[in-house]
Amino acid sequence: MDLNALELFVAAAGAGSLSEAARRTGVPLATLSRRVRKLEDELGVRLVERGSRGLALTPAGTQLMAEASPALATLSQAEQRLHDTSGVAGTLRVSLPPHFQPMWSIFSEFTRRHPAVRLDVFIADRRVDLVADGVDIVLRVGEGGYGSYVGRTLTRYRHRVVAAPSFLERVEVENPEDLRDLVCACWRTGAPPSWTLGEFQLRLDPVLVTNDYEHLLHMAVTGQAIAEVPPFMAYEPLQDGRLVEVLPDYPMPAQAIRALVVDTRAISPLVRQFLDFAAQAVPAALTRQVDG
Fold first, then answer.
1. I need a labelling partner for 225 at 20 to 30 A (CA). Which of 94, 183, 260, 286 fits?
2. Which homologous superfamily does the CATH classification assign to the domain defined by 65-156+254-292?
């Protein structure tokens, strides 16, 4: 099998089109297209369907992409490790949910330890397809939604219900039932807005629903509403008095942070190294930014 042609196929599959792959790799479009066709002829199967909206992988192409991508990464990293004293090198492609600030310092520390590593970080609030999106690791909050992938739970944390002191001066909140008639802002899930506080399941009628935690934090800090935000986003406003945690004796459910890959048996040394590093670094970072 022609490894150069295989690399171009992986680039095209990851880019979603031959023209974009040509732009990323610097290989002329005609050459790239010819090499992919030659690879198909060599293997005796069609790998991609070409259409007006770009490329779509056939079942054979999907299988080859899933197996070839980590294998090529391993070969590339083996070459680069010859020049890297840390033993880890290459490009690591990671997908994160929006506003997950604890990962910023983790990425910085990992690349400080491994100078030959380059990061390609993809921020998405949708379900990521690791193969189609060309991602090595997806970090996501919650247990479900990725049944075809495998990985590990890094840690768990709880969101905080918070409000500005000026807001709480105008109301009385002693138990979850007191929140029903108060102005609140909620994360948009597609289900009817609600908060689980301890054993209470509280249906809400929010003035705002959004998939932007920065907006929810703004609503709380400016005294416009009670809101639910991740603890690391609330940490500084809670420390400096701009926010107060509402009903801390009724905690929200713990949420898992999971690191997912296509197949743990086929991951590259770089991906394995980062997973091991994240298993230690993520709990430590959250502890610093939640509990101080």
1. 286
2. Periplasmic binding protein-like II (3.40.190.10)
What is the Cα–Cα distance from 259 to 216, expressed in whole angstroms? 26
Instruction: Please give the Cα distance from 262 to 211 (Å, whole number).
Output: 27
Residue 108 DSSP label: H
Coil, helix or strand for 110?
A: helix
CATH number for the domain running over 160-251: 3.40.190.10
pLDDT in tens, 134-192: 888 989 887 665 556 777 889 999 999 999 999 999 898 999 999 988 999 999 888 89
Helix (H) or strand (E) holding 202: strand 200-203
Q: How many CB atoms lie within 10 A of CB 69?
A: 26
Strand, helix or coil for residue 172: coil
Nearest Cα residue to 152 out of 258, 62, 64: 258
CATH, range 1-57: 1.10.10.10
Name the phi and psi angles at 229, rounded to 5. -140, 160
The strand pair at 137-141 and 254-261 is best described as: antiparallel
Distance, CA of 230 to CA of 228 (rounded, Å): 7
Tokens, residue 174:
């002693």
